[in-house]
Structures are given as C-alpha cells and as structure tokens.
Amino acid sequence: MLKFFLQRVALTVPTFVALMFVTFVAIRLVPGDPVEVRVGERGISPERLAYFRHELGLDQPVWKQFLDYVWHLLHGDFGTSLVTNQKVLTEFATLFPATIELGLAGMLIAVLLGIPAGAMAAVKRGTWYDQLIMGLSVTGYSMPIFWWGLILIMVVAEGWGLTPVSGRIDLINYYFEPTTGFMLVDAWLSKQPGAFLDAVRHLILPAIVLGTIPLAVIARMTRSSMLEVLNEDYVRTARAKGLPPRRVIGIHALRNALIPVVTIIGLQVGTLVAGAVLTETIFSWPGVGKWLIEAVGRRDYPALQGGVMLISAIVMLVNLAVDVLYGVINPRIRHGG
Amino acid sequence: MKTTICAALAAVCSALSIAPAGAKTLVYCSEGSPENFTPAINTTGTSFDAARPVYDKLTEFERGTTKVEPGLAESWQVADGGKTITFKLRKGVKFHSGVNGFKPTRDFNADDVLFSFERQWKENHPYHKVSGGKYDYFGDMDMPKLLESIEKVDDYTVRMRLKEPNVAMLANLAMDFASIHSAEYAAMLDKAGKKEQFDQVPVGTGPFSFVMYQKDAVIRFKANKDYWGEKALVDDLVFAITPDPTTRYSKLKAGECHFVIAPRPADLPEMQKDKTLKVIQQPGLNIAYWSFNVLKPPLDKKEVRLALNMAIDKKSIIRDVYLGAGTAAKNLIPPTLWGYNDSVKDYPYDPGKAKALLKSAGVATPLDIDLWYMPVQRPYNPNAKRIAEMMQSDLAKIGVNAKLVTYEWGEYRKRAQQGEHMTVQLGWTGDNGDPDNFFFLRGCAAARPGGQNLSKWCDKAYDDRMNRAKTLSDNKERAKLYMEMQAIEHEAAPDLKIAHSVVWEAMRANVTGFKQSPLAAHQFNGVDLK
C-alpha cells in the first residue's frame, strides 16, 4: 500500500512543477503587462514605466523571474498582489472557504441525487424513467452555466421569490464578523435568529448551478457502471439465492458499481473549480474563481500564478486521495500498481 | 423583521453591532472590490466610490455638479498672479473614532493636509512606499511639476505655492486622490508596525465611517453623526459587491439593493416601465473621437477631413453600438461642462457632398487609409471594433478603403501617441470637471510625438486661447475663450467626434435625494429611503 501511495505522490510532484512552469510562461505570453494595464488614455512615460517594471522585477529575464518565484515559493511565499498589495496566500485563504462551501454543497447535491438517479435508471433500463433521467443528464451536462444560473435567478428568485437573488446572507438584516469564512458556520455561530437558514437559502441556487454538470456525469456513470455490474455472476447468484431485490441492488450491485464512480467524483473537483469561476460571478459569491478572473483582467501576475498553483495543488491532492481511496476499496488496483 | 428580533434579543443584538431598531440601511450594489481604501494609490471609479464615504477633501465638487466649493478648507485666497493659494481650514472637524482601535486626540488640522500630500509627493516620506507607492493621479494631474511648496502657516492655515499659475488646481484638489487622511492615525499604525493597515482600514472625516470590508462580498459604513457637512440620512450604508449587471438588476427588482451601478442598456426600457424603480441619466464626462493625423497626406487637407466627417452615419453608430447609452458629440467637451458651445453645428451625414469634397481636394479614389480601433472597451466606447466596421462600410461608399488595424492596448496607445496612424479611434474621460482637462487634447504641446494630441494638429489661434484661459480666474472669461476654441476646432475638423456616453443610474423608487454626478461619483450623504 505504501509503495502504491509513494508511486502516486512521485507522479504528482513533476506534474506540479511542469504546471508551475507552463502557467508562469503562459501568463507572461498574454499581451499587456501589469503596469500598462493600469494606465488609461493618458498613457505612461517611458521612465515611469521602466521604474515600476523594475520595482516589480518585470525587467528581469523570464527564466530569472521563474527561479526567483520558485525560490520564494519554497519559502512559502506566494508573492504579493500587484493590485491590492496583499499577500496572495492571505487573499486566497480569505476567499477559499466560500469556494469550498459552494463546491461541497454542489457536490452534495450531485452525489445525493446523481447516484440514486443513475442506479434507478440502470435497474429500470429501457423504461421511460431511464430515458427521462438520461435525457435530463445530457441536458444538464450541455447547459451553459451562465445561462442556467440566470434562468434560475429569474424564475426561482425573482419570479417565485423562493430564494434570494445572490450573495451569501441578507445584508440588511444580519451582520456579524466572519470567523471561519464558511457562511453556514459563521451564521450558526452568530446565534442570530434566522441567520443560518438565511445562509442556507442563499446557498441553494448557486449550489444547484454548480452541481448540475457533476450531477449529470455522476448519474450517467452510475448507470453504465451499474448496468455492467447487474450482469455479473455474483449478482445473478445473489438473486438466485432469493435475496430481496433491494438487497441485491443496494448491497451487491451498487457497492461494486460505485468504484469507478468514486474516481469520477474525484475528477469532477476540477469541473467544480472551473464552474465556480462563472457561478461565483453570477451569484456575487466571494470565492477564488471570481478573484482569478479579476486577476487575469488586471494582469496581476502573482495573484494569478499563486491562485492557479494553489488550486492545482488542491485538485491534485484530491485526485491523489481518490487514487488512494480507489486502491483501498479495489484491491486489484492496489496490487496491479 | 430585524426590529422584532432586536427587541427580543436586545442584548445579543447590541453585542453583535446590529443596527438599532428602526435603523435605515441603504444597500448599493457596486460592481467590484476596491483595490484598497486610499484613493491616492488607486485608479478605478470602483475604488474611489468605496473610499468616498469616508473622506473629505480641501475643496469639494458640489454634489451633482462640477462646481468647486469649500470642503475642509472653508475659504482660500489666490495671490501672486495665481501662484499662491492660502487655505483657511475648517475648525472643529473630527476624525472617525473607534475604527481599527483609533481614538483621535485632536481635531483635523494643517498636519493632516501636509501628511496627505507629502506622502504622495516626497519620496523620503515614511508612508511613500507603503502599498506599492504608485500615485498615478498625483502624477497625472502634473502635481509634482506644478507644486513649489506646501507649508503649514499655523494649525488652521496652509499655503500652497505653485511654479506657474494654474486655475484648475482648485478643481484638482476636489479630486479623490487629494482626500485628507489622519496624520495621527498614520503615526499610531507606524508605531505599532502596521503601516500597511493604513490603506486597508480607512479613517477620515467624511459623512460615513468605515465598519468592515469583506473582499468581493461587502463593505459596511455607518453614518458619522458628528459630520460637519451635509449629513447622512441613513444609519448604515452597505456596498453589496455584485459584478454581473443582470444579477444587479434582479437584486434591485427583488429589493435586495436600493441602488445599482451601471445598468445594462438592454434592460433600460423594462426598468423605465417598472413603477417600483427610478431611472435617471445624463451624458458622461467623456468623449469618443476618431482622430485624423494631419501630418499624413492627404489628411493634411481640410476638405478630406470634412469629407470623412460627412461620410459617417453617426446616428446609426449611436443607435446600434451605444444602444441608447450614448449621445452624438459635436464638441470635445460634453454638454454638462461649463463653456460648452451649443451653437456649433455638427457636420451632416452627406456621402454625396463628401465625395464632392474629396474630388475638389484633388484626391483620387479609391483612397487607402488605415483606421485604428482600440482592442478594449472603454467608458466612452462600448465596442470600438464594431464602430470601425460600420465606419469602414460608410467610407467604402465614398471610395475610401479603410484598413482596420489594432494592437494590444498598451502598444496601441504608445503607437498612436507617436503618430504612426493615419486615423485612430480613442477618447477621454474627464478627471476634474475643468474644460482645460479636455481641450489640451488638441493643444500644440500635446501634438509632439508621444503626446496625447492624436490628430497632431497644432493651431496657434486655438493654442493661444487655451494658454490664456489657464491664467484667468474668472470662469466667465474662460468660458468665452473655450467657446471660441470649439468653433476654431470644429472649422478645422482634425477629428470626428463620435459620442459622449450616457451614464444611467437605477434605483428603487423610494430612494430620494440622489444627485447624479457628471464625474460619475456615487455619493450617499443626503440620500434617504422613504
């Protein structure tokens, strides 16, 4: 098991280094530099431009800038945002809980609905139910997040008034200092009556929007994996033994069918981060997705680089954990290495 | 609902600083996070709006106008032919107390004025390098070139000496970069080794004091009950940061915010029909233009420039590109600015006459020109590429082949200022509401390579008047000169004025007292909820 784990870690490290280099170079290949992007119609004098470029170290060759960056990174320094002059790590840490909260809520919806829906579709293969679920999942998968978010706001929030439009809490009625950055937890800790429920209401729409694509993927994956398993000998044996269908499907089939689904859930973490960029913008959700988009616009190299590195590291860690978990629940993988 | 909750849980509520029963909270849906809360180191309207509730300046723009009125300086005297300005400071003005643990021990005085300017001006100032030390506006308004000295005469008198007379200085001082900070607060943070907090947790003398800021989510202010000027009429002011305009509109309809920035032009017709909302508009303090480089033949010929002016169907551009958020321009300055010459008649759209003018100028068609367009959206131009395409098709009708050209934004400005183009689109957003802040764009000094006069047009009659106006302190006399300059420039047609953007503001119908600023500033003292 240890060997398996070490092998996976060994694969992660070079991937991370390669990613760091590619991001570093790619950011600098985008036209426009952080100093010029601040400047309006007035322009900037060549002396002033040179002065600020020097201050920011942008006048150094890219390879030297890269080595400097790695050196600082090894000392735990992700740099300072060129726009806000705040430490990148501090900004990230302030915003990341909002993204995790949203991501977990989205994933929860995806898993809780996707697995039963997919399993049922497999069991009732070929029926209208199966076709409905698969139809919905194709629709969900191919729906543009931006459009879907706006439609939900218009119908559910504006039209029916069931949820708030955007944000994380009602700003007129509740005010408390953030302690953990997780609004649900902070609202709970604030002990203000109604605050927790209000935070939940704010979370519903963005979580649905973010969870839609993973939900569709998980449902489809569960269905196909389940179909495979349902034809296995051991399922037939279980049925032949006279076990009740619920036990056959729930224990014998579903447990085995979930093995590939776990991997898919791990891979969906990347999708969640990508989706968070748009979801956070539509729902005014103060997470890292929105922050990165702004950093691109302002050519805030340290924020952009640091944000990409931190998010990649987290996605890689989750995938590593999933790989390991996969090994734990499926001995064939572990032994096959 | 909050009232009931607070009544039941009075103790808890007060401990958690919930606004008291019956408190009025105004929610403004802004579009982004501020860079920080010190306007001197910022460049965006979003950041200025976020800091404005907290600070005052020596002079102020009267709310809703560009008229300069007393601020923290209650009066001033101009002497020495406009080279010395002596400010008498307002007494009894208090800095916000309790923000970031700061308790002021004295009222506002001359030390605060000196601190605020010297931080930007003197490289050896202890705060000069804090937060990156880029003072764009201080530099852009030529303050280092203009200022000879700023001296404290006594606690309530400050004297500013200039190297040359400049009447726009008083308007410059009303700009956000000239906000007055507390020197005492700065000293406290310096002592505690927390200088960087100075720009993150603001302390000022303004109508609202800062409460808290959560990046990308919310900024909270509360009314400053001790404010010396026009008081806040609400108890709490909340900026709900909402970047997407469609979401902002939804929030406005749902009552989650009372006021939104920058509504989408496409939503305006529906907004105007909604009885629960109020929509107001006025031309922005800006201009979008298409400059002709008069140094490049055949654009040196006036007839050719006039022909280009008459070839373009401006109405269609305003209709199809600005979608109602623009108004056709005929002068360099917008009509909201004093000195605007309304008697100037815009050139008509007349392709037939344009063709004839080209012929009379001896220009053979098809004529090849280049037409540069910005790669970015600007406040005065929502889609330069689309405009360029429409112009291209209009020009084809008079036998002019326009080749569309663009570069990366920084490169674009640089090359255009060098004069590499034949024709180029650009524009300008006014800073201080002084007409001179626009007219220099066609002045001779700016026509040099690298200067901002993209027409490279230099006319002595125009330039003399502009320079004379700078030395006059009587705005009536200045306005007369500016009107003449507009007529001169119109006659020579070194450019085609495309449009002034129209700035729309949308709010709930119960919001009263908001005055739309030509400078696009959002100011909430004097604003109430009925």
List the defining traits of the structure above.
heterodimer, A: mainly alpha, 76% helix, B: 530 residues, alpha+beta, twelve-stranded mixed sheet, four-stranded antiparallel sheet, 18 helices, 20 strands, 22% strand, disordered N terminus
What does this structure look like?
The complex is a heterodimer of chains A (337) and B (530). In chain A, helix 5 (88-123) runs antiparallel to helix 11 (245-282) and helix 7 crosses helix 9 (195-230). Chain A has helices at residues 2-29, 34-38, 46-55, 62-74, 88-123, 128-142, 145-159, 183-190, 195-230, 233-240, 245-282, 288-297, 301-329, 331-336. Chain A is mostly helical and 337 residues long. Chain B is of the alpha+beta class. Chain B has helices at residues 2-8, 10-15, 45-51, 110-121, 136-140, 143-146, 169-172, 183-191, 245-254, 268-273, 302-311, 314-322, 351-360, 384-396, 409-418, 436-439, 460-471, 475-492, and strands at residues 25-30, 59-61, 68-70, 73-79, 84-89, 147-154, 157-162, 208-214, 218-223, 236-241, 259-260, 277-283, 286-292, 326-328, 367-372, 400-405, 423-429, 495-508, 511-512, 528-529. In chain B, the strands form four sheets. In chain B, strands 1, 8, 9, 10, 11, 12, 13, 14, 15, 16, 17 and 18 form a twelve-stranded mixed beta sheet that branches. Chain B is globular, with a radius of gyration of 25 Å. The model of chain B is unreliable at 1-20 (pLDDT under 50). The interface between A and B is large, with 56 and 60 residues.
Name the overall outline of chain A: globular
What is the number of beta strands of chain A?
0
Which two chains have the most extensive interface, and how many residues on each? A-B, 56 and 60 residues
Describe the main β-sheet of chain B briefly. 12 strands, mixed
Low-confidence stretches of chain A: none
Overall radius of gyration of chain A: 24 Å
Strand content of chain A: under 5%
The percent of residues in helical segments of chain A reads: over 70%
Strand content of chain B: 15-25%
Radius of gyration of chain B: 25 Å
Described by its quaternary structure, the protein is heterodimer
What is the distance, rounded to the nearest whole angstrom, between the alpha carbons of the first and last residues of chain A? 9 Å
Topology pattern of chain A, helix = H, strand = E: HHHHHHHHHHHHHH
Name the overall outline of chain B.
Answer: globular
Averaging pLDDT over every residue of chain A, what do you get? 88
Q: Uncertain segments of chain B of ≥5 residues (pLDDT<50)?
A: 1-20
